[in-house]
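Figure 6 in text form: structure in, sequence out.
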């Protein structure tokens, strides 16, 4: 495919108005499809722009928090309807903005956005307290109240999906919100705002652009921000949690992963191989924190099952993310392309490495886009750098195992604990293994993505808090007030 839309300027949303940065500065947005093409400009927001977004959110908070839940519910459902009507536009823009392939990733992201808006609208009335039976002379009850102003800091890999985790939950609970777009993929979030801005009162939803080290940092330390909800790398997440924690602000962190996929010897089937390929998240260029990037195959079926996986990966087409035939799109940026390439070179240098598949040999897509084909390192060691560190690219380490205790130990021998996948026809073995794995989300005999209503978040260095669920909304975006009343 060729051709790009005419470059245009996308302003920020603050207090119900579409505005530029106060100092007038802008930043170019290039598409991962072609590093030479600027598809848009956006404001290069600074600290003063963060301040006015927070002020707008604070001004809108009392009236929004004071609404009957049915009124917030109506608006969330109206927003879901508006987003649903524009899903294809959002998907097309996602492909252009992030490099995620239209068919395999961009459309599912847009659908997830709609689904979670609708889900959170449905559970808006569950923000409720309890009473304690304390006798006839006492009324003791709790209220779940919104935190106030929430700053949602978004990543570049799946911005619409991550915005879905934060935006409707925060709003359903009665908070107001400032979303900070990723520098490398701001357009889909600005378009989401354009679609639903008029649904909500001015200042309830604000969207800012700029560097994370500037406007994002200001939001994290701003005394008017009551909660920071961050999704991104573990390193940056630690920093954001630290600076927000200095003022005891609430925070939640959805961070990195190095997720294990464990295949038992009774699961050497085509159907399981199909699901295991889903766990790799190769259809998202491996740019997913839930990527099953460590594949543990039992020795008894190692060669046979790995051959099935390789056959399926080899059939995946890397190409223009706007092309319906593309299974795998473009890596987001030159920086990320170089990071992935560096890890591939490290993996190739490891003693005893076997390369089961190297898609670079048949890769047709290339410069000026940021395209990386999958590579599979076979008979890897769990202590290799490529097996321990999050690469955020289409790189798979395949590791043999023979003992259940051994494979659980290897799966848990990592600083991350976001996702895991277990495949066995023996449900006793599968569930016993799932229960032993130190991850916030374990899938058994399936490899798909998140769905509305599931509690999503990590153990260990993969983060703090939960999202995308009723529990996540209550835990992450409300606080409990206890009220005791003497009667009579």
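Output sequence:
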């Amino acid at each position: 495919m060729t051709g790009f839309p005419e470059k245009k300027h996308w302003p920020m949303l603050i207090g119900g108005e579409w505005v530029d940065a106060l100092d007038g500065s802008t930043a170019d947005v290039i598409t991962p499809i072609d590093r030479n093409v600027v598809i848009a400009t956006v404001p290069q927001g600074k600290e003063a722009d963060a301040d006015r977004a927070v002020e707008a959110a604070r001004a809108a908070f009392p009236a929004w928090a004071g609404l009957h839940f049915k009124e917030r519910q109506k608006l969330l459902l109206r927003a879901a309807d508006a987003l649903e009507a524009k899903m294809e536009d959002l998907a097309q823009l996602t492909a252009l903005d992030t490099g995620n392939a239209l068919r395999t990733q961009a459309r599912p992201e847009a659908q997830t956005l709609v689904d979670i808006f609708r889900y959170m609208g449905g559970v808006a009335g569950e923000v409720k307290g309890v009473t304690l039976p304390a006798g006839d002379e006492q009324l003791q009850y709790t209220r779940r109240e919104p935190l106030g102003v929430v700053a949602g800091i978004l990543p570049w890999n799946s911005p619409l999906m991550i915005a879905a985790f934060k935006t409707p939950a925060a709003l359903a609970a009665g908070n107001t919100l400032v979303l900070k777009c990723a520098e490398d993929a701001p357009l889909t979030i600005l378009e989401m705002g354009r679609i639903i801005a008029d649904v909500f009162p001015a200042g309830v939803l604000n969207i800012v652009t700029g560097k994370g080290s500037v406007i994002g940092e200001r939001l994290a330390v701003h005394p008017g921000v009551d909660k920071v909800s961050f999704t991104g790398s573990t390193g940056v997440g630690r920093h954001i949690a630290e600076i927000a924690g200095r003022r005891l602000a609430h925070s939640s962190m959805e961070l990195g992963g190095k997720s294990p996929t464990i295949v038992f010897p009774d699961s050497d089937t085509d159907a399981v191989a199909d699901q295991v390929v889903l766990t790799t998240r190769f259809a998202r260029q491996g740019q997913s924190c839930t990527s099953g990037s460590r594949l543990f195959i039992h020795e008894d079926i190692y060669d046979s099952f790995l051959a099935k996986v390789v056959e399926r990966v080899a059939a995946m087409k890397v190409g223009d993310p706007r092309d319906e035939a593309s299974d795998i799109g473009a890596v987001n940026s030159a920086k990320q392309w170089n990071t992935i390439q560096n890890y591939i070179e490290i993996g190739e240098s490891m003693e005893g490495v076997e390369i089961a598949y190297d898609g670079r040999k048949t890769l047709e897509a290339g410069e000026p886009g940021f395209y990386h084909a999958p590579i599979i390192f076979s008979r890897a060691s769990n202590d290799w750098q490529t097996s321990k560190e999050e690469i955020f690219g289409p790189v798979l380490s395949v590791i043999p195992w023979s003992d259940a205790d051994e494979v659980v130990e290897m799966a848990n021998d990592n600083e991350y604990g976001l996702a895991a996948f277990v495949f066995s026809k023996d449900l006793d073995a599968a569930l016993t293994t799932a229960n032993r794995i130190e991850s916030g989300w374990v899938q058994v005999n399936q490899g798909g993505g998140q769905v509305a209503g599931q509690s999503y978040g990590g153990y260990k260095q993969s983060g703090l808090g939960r999202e995308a669920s009723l529990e996540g909304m209550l835990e992450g975006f409300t606080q409990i007030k206890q009220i005791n009343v003497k009667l009579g």
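Caption detail: The first strand starts at residue 8 and ends at 9.
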